[in-house]
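Lab notes, practical 5.
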Amino acid sequence: MFKEQHNWRIELNRQWSLNNVEFMIEPLDKAILTSIYISSLDSDILPLGYLKDRTPISQHTFNLKIKEMTESGFVEKSNPLRLTFLGRGLLKIVLIGGVFDIVHPGHIHTLKDAKSHGDILVVVVAKSSTAHKINKNRKIYHDEFLRRELVSSIRYVDYALIGREGTLYDTVEFVKPDIIALGYDQKHTEKEIAMNCLKRGINTRVIRLNTPLPGSKSTQIKEELGHSIYDI
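Output from the prediction step:
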């Protein structure tokens, strides 16, 4: 009983500390933590390079900030840079997935909504083979690499990756999101996703998003325009 109460107090203190540190953290610090997290997903991305594509920052300022955050216990003293448990706790990662073959206003609103629930939006672009397993009659116009490039260009998206060959949960294990966001018309249920995550030891919250444009759907566009959409 004493041990359980002791662990409970430690967890409460940890959450209190994270909440208070998050309140005080500067936008540039959060941007740097974000860049380190993204580089942990993709070894080809360097934190400073990721940052320079999004904000004006010098190598000198970056080095000073990394030194400060290492001393604060947010970043490990390692090469490549890694977030500590405390540093990772300052970020709320949202994961959302889809095919994104023909991106339309409904997608943009959904991604914007998903991003509003956290600090970092990671988008999983389904492999063509995976999309065909779900619907074998589905016509896909673009391969996964082009679809990933398209999604990456949307400003609400911090990082887009191609889903793994296995199940959705293989990708979830890799990203380790705090929140999984489901589109308003995605067939998976919140309970189904949450239960399967728990079976794999993944502690995440599952939410259902609402889109302001429920009539804007890829299937509807394809049905009405078909291949002629490329003549627009």
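Observations recorded by the TA: The longest helix spans residues 2-24. The CA atoms of residues 183 and 209 lie 5 Å apart.
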